[in-house]
Amino acid sequence: MTKYVLIPLLPLISFIINILFGRRFIKHRAHWVAVPAVAGSFILSLIVFMEVLNGKTQDINLYEWVVSGDFNVSIGFLIDQLSALMMLVVTSISTLIFIYSIGYMHGDGGYYRFFAYLSLFVFSMLMLVMSNNFLLLYFGWEAVGLCSYFLIGFWFHKKSAADAGKKAFIVNRFGDFGFGLGVILTYLTFGTLQYTEVFEKAPLILGQTINFLGSDVGLITIICLLLFCGAVGKSAQIPLHVWLPDAMEGPTPVSALIHAATMVTAGVFMVARCNPLFNLSETAMQTVAVVGGVTAFFAATIALVQNDIKRVIAYSTVSQLGYMFLALGVGAYTAGIFHLYTHAYFKALLFLGSGSVIHALHNEQNMQKMGGLKKYMPITYWTFIMATLSITGIPGFAGFFSKDEILWRTFLGGNLGKFLWILGTGAALLTAFYSWRLIYLTFHGRYRGDEKIHPHESPPVMTVPLIILAIGAVVAGWVGIPPLFAEHGDKIGEFLSPVLGHPEGHGTHAQEIMVMTLSVIVALLGWIIAYNMYIRKPDLALTLGTRFSGLYKLLYNKYWVDELYSITIVRPTLRLAEKVVLGFFDGVIIEGIVNGLPALIDVFSQKFRKIQAGLLSGYALIMTIGAIFIVGLWIFMR
Amino acid sequence: MTIPQLFFAYFAISTVIMSILMITRKNPVHAVLWMLVLFVHIAALYLFLNAEFLAAIQMIIYAGAVLVLFLFVIMLLNLRKEEGERKYNTFWPVCAGISVIMVVFMLVILRKIEVIPPLGEYSIEKIHTEGSMMSVGKVLYTKYLLPFEIASFILLVAIIGAVILAKRRVE
Amino acid sequence: MVPLSWYVILSSVIFSIGLFGFLARRSLIMMFMSIELMLNSVNISLVAFSHYLQSMTGQILVFFVITVAAAEAAIGLAILIALYRNKPTVKVDEVNILKG
Would you say residue C73 lies in a domain? Predict the structure, then answer.
């Protein structure tokens, strides 16, 4: 049992050591503490994964956390197939990114702080996926949000970074509010927060309704929708996606770890974990699927025209998360988790590769100022190609298997499914286009950047993780080969089925081949269009941009969602805070009391001090009057 | 009105008149002189009450020491007659009223005295036999020995204090 | 026989006269003299009671009162002298630096 505790404990210890002693003693050697810790967690996760593979699952309560009347919550771990897989993904990607950060963050003043916060993040994420009750999940949820704030605003001297950290935290708060309500409602309904107990009792309350704003809605639906609110915030789905592109202000390893592979997938994990609840509510599942599909498409449209290399990858992440939710929404939980797992590898690879480019160009992030880097950074280039082949869904690579599974399952999901399938396929086309556009603008053509910068390949401490991730991006998908090709090829589906069940829906082989072919065609189509626009006729991009300038401006400005939020929510709130809270409550009431009370005392004391006239006879007179008064009282009251 | 009562009446009335005179003098030396005569009359009252020792003490200490001390200070500070100044406070009617009320209260309280403690052993005859001084001494040095010692302490403190307070600062 | 009450009445009257002098006079010397007057009135009362209750206690108390009165007069006048050195006045309403 110790190994279960050690898995999150090692990163926590690394955090404590780094944060307490980092500034004075450890300084630039922080990685000696952090990397062994997280590597240790990885090895232990591997051992646990092997055990789970053999069928050994655990549900253990370690420590009685809250005991208050009827309300009992413990710190406990649920080690089953889902959490074992998540632990493996989190720790393996974390280890590689930690090693990469040794090179990327070399020489930074806050080196120890970086590893401290990263370790804290790994601890929080592990607690999130290993927990066996909703409260511990909520703890991990909030903790990863907190670490995200720390790490996005890591270079806090830059105003844009500090603002981005704030924005991430506040937007997440919107989602977390719904999530908190969901957890509370869960407790009120079921009387417990343990997963196993809640999922057992769930079918019993199937028909119950709750009065919400005047009308009766299904209780399970409300719970699921509230929980999903949290997922929308944490996993940056529409309408709470606005924080993720801004989060690119953080260092690139942070973007790779948190905003690609782990934290943003917490929402997906949570919905998958609660699949017994979601399965009981048709409305909730449809909502999840629609939100996922729409996000997948719209985020991809925005990514088409962005010039910052990290922004493109950020919107790509939002889009891919949309795919995962789409899968969950149509009931294909294994497909969603499968995509989460493959996406972790190729998205982290994309981010780390872009980090390598940015590092080589001395923090230049605008793709219009890049170009021709193919010959300077070959390893980065070829690993980038691997990742792009994977994300666009070229057969044989990891992304193909997972994305194809999602699109197939969506297609089978009735009329809504067909509509969402069209959105998904469209998004695949756009994904292919912008991914190849990124490669062509960055690595091909002429170098359009600053003359003084001489780009060079990154040091091995950065390129070796890239290579390892590239291998992952290729082979990771081979555990999910559809039964179409191999009899028991869908190993991951089999593995996860005790927790996530089997997806419904059956189609014919012909349909399946059609869907698959179509997705390959759109992938290639996107590639060809990108090739034409950026290699053969480079000014085609400019011409199209000026001809459809309205559409271009719409996409470039991200549909002006940020501006909309600013006008409707942000600015009124700030004005309210300033005028009402600061102006009235603080300025008038509190200041009135704080200043008024002394002023009152002052007025009274000014009157009272006249008594002390300094006149001896006066004092004697008053004393005598007092004595006579007392005597008189005694005489007349007897 | 018997003879003792007549004598008492004289002494009482003159005491009152002299005390009034004493406190209404502008010239402090006049007030001290009236105080002297007052003390002599009070000593006479003590004689009436068979307290010869106390009468002697009164004369010696009050008339002989305290008054002389007052005169010394008045002469030392050269306190002249307060020329043309008011001798009373601004609020002296209040003080007069307070005094009247005080007298009235005390008389009322006098009316309410009901319990007379049992008589002691030192009757007039006994005092005449033993002599006033012997009687005082017998009680003073046995029953009231501690207060006696403390009184001597007080006098010591007064001596030292007076010297220190009034000493001219050595420049 | 002179009744006890006459002595007590006399004592009260002299006491209140002394009280008036203490409260109303502006000169510190006169205030001290009024204090002596008040003490004497109490002495009269004590001796009267001692005589009529045939106990020596009253006279002993008078003994002590006289002692303490003398000591207090000495110190009070010493203070007066010290005060006079600082500010050459004995008017009580001119020594009011400690007013609020």
Answer: yes
Structural domain including C15 reads: 4-94
φ, ψ of residue B17 to 5 degrees: the values are -65, -40
Spell out the residues 6+ positions from residue A558 whose beta carbon is closer than 8 angstroms to its own.
A245, A302
Residue spans of chain A under pLDDT 70 = 212, 214, 483-489
Examine the predicted complex and report whether its ipTM is higher than 0.85: yes
**Integer Rg of chain C from CA:** 17
Q: How many CB atoms lie within 10 A of CB A51?
A: 15
Q: CATH no. for residue C63?
A: 1.10.287.3510
Q: At what angle do helices A398-411 and A333-360 cross, to 10 degrees?
A: 140
Any domain includes C14: yes
Contact (CB<8Å) B98/A631: no
pTM, full prediction: 0.71
Q: Is A621 on the interface with B (CB under 8 A)?
A: yes
Strand duo A58-68 + A215-218: pairing: unpaired
| pLDDT by residue, tens only, chain B of 171 residues | 788 889 999 999 999 999 999 998 888 899 999 999 999 999 999 998 888 999 999 999 999 999 999 999 998 888 776 555 677 777 888 889 999 999 999 888 888 877 778 777 777 778 778 888 888 888 889 989 999 999 999 999 999 999 998 887 776
Cβ of B98 and A632 within 8 Å?
A: no
Give residue A126's pLDDT.
Answer: 93
Q: How many domains does chain C have?
A: 1
User: Does the residue C48 lie in any domain?
Assistant: yes
Tell me which residue in C18, C25, C77 faces B73 most closely, judged by beta carbons: C77
Q: Is A624 on the interface with B (CB under 8 A)?
A: yes
Residues A583, A588, A593, A595: what is their CA dihedral angle, to the nearest 10 degrees?
Answer: 90
Q: Which domains does chain B have, with CATH numbers?
A: 3-81+124-166 (1.20.120.1200)
Has residue C10 been placed in a domain? yes
The backbone torsions φ and ψ at residue A633, rounded to the nearest 5 degrees and listed phi first, read -60, -45
Could you report the per-residue pLDDT of C36-47, keeping only the tens digit for each? 999 999 999 999
Tell if the CB–CB gap between C82 and B165 is shorter than 8 Å: yes
Q: Which of A33, A195, A238, A201 is nearest to A119 (CA)?
A: A33
